[in-house]
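Incident review: delayed structure delivery

Summary: a single-chain prediction request sat in the queue longer than the usual turnaround. Root cause was a stuck worker, restarted by the on-call engineer. No data loss occurred. The affected request and its eventual output are reproduced below so the record is complete for anyone auditing the incident later.

Affected input:
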Amino acid sequence: SPHKVKILSLASFSFGLEDVAGGPVPMRIDYSREHLSSDQAFLEQLARELASVASTVEGCYGTPMDMEGVVLEKSTGREIHLVQARPIVEHF
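Output delivered after worker restart:
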């Protein structure tokens, strides 16, 4: 179906930053506790939300775009922030 989520790969990092009072601090990531690694429904919902943002941006520009962003999980809900977007350029 056109709205099926297919997972091709996940990033694999061993350290991240935790937002604490006084600023972010490095922390070791236990992937068994991360939704992205352990919760298929969470991952599929996040992928749908990211795809919606990507479709909107590409619709506005009228061309496929290379996008980078940040997803924040907050007590008030999820925030998706687009950091940059640029047209995909093919080199021949």
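Verification: The longest strand covers residues 77-87.
Action items: add queue-age alerting; document worker restart procedure.
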